[in-house]
Amino acid sequence: MVKARKYVVKKYFEGVPKRDDYEIVEYELPNLQNGEILTKTEWISVDPYQRAYNSFNKIPYDQFAFQVAIVEDSRNPSYPIGTRIVTHKGWCDYAILNPNEPQIPLNMIYKLPNLKDLSPSLGIGAVGMPGATAYFGLLEICKPKVGETVVVTGAAGAVGSIVGQIAKIKGCRVIGFAGSDDKVGWLEKELGFDKAINYKTADIDKTLKEAAPEGIDCYFDNVGGEISSIIISQMNAKGRVAVCGSISSYNEVSSNVVKAPILQPSIVFKELTIQGFLVKSFSKHWPEAFAQLVEWIKSGKLITREDITEGFDKIYDAFIGMLAGKNFGKAIVKM
């Protein structure tokens, strides 16, 4: 028998998630059945969608998340001991899985992509769901062209930092918004953004006009809210917007109303295309994105950065820190 631990959400979040919204449950795993594998978690992902999806689940529920795990015991010949896999099993240290069961997008089980000696942790970051989100949201929805101006919010985060770099690879001019001067410096000096703006201190409307005097062609929206309305108002005719998330509103208490300037005049008169998307819709094509992302990383065209917290007991702290924007790049937990 293996003793396992997991985080169970026992309350719906009100505002910022609280520690007592969770309960850590210890339990014994049963013996393996045919087709099953026993996995030990090595890396756990903390992401904004874990906050956003809270209200969609029936309480109590196991906290979901992507993780990289290693097979410690197996009764499945396709997954021998020592195989590394990516799952959506969540904030737990051990799990029993059956890869033969029908695969559902986001709840899939797949072998860690060929990372060519890169850290396995990238399997939940740049070569995982966040990398695929950046890749497909930018290239399939925004469809940037050489010489165009691309703006991305949440630019120093797991998705935004990759979006901006892919846009540069594709020959675009890139402007990113982040929440500190340190992040601004990182985006400009290390990741090659043409301009980065601290949204907490800048006059957003004025500074953006100065940074993009000829307007904006593509916008990758991670945050929503007033800043997105300002960016969309400065877009060029036939501009394209990929709406990935709205982290600015995730921690708002339901009684509060998040206000932002009206968008319809800009959308209509500039004939903008605005499309929301879920990366799971592209799940069949993730392997092609992963192969390209690994190639860019290995060649030095794409820089990855991980914000690592250590320890099962620190997962909540990493989650709250990420929601507060403390991370540079991908926030992960090393088990």
TrEMBL record:
Transmembrane segments: none
EC number: 1.3.1.48
Domain Enoyl reductase (ER): residue ranges: 18-333
Any one of the GO BP annotations: prostaglandin metabolic process
Compartments, as annotated in UniProt: Cytoplasm
InterPro entries in the cross-refs: ADH-like_C, ADH_N_2, ER, MDR_fam, PTGR1
Entry keywords, A to Z: Acetylation, Cytoplasm, Fatty acid metabolism, Lipid metabolism, NADP, Oxidoreductase, Phosphoprotein
Main location: cytoplasm
GO molecular function, one term: 2-alkenal reductase [NAD(P)H] activity
A single cellular component GO annotation: cytoplasm
SMART domains linked: PKS_ER
Entry protein name: 15-oxoprostaglandin 13-reductase
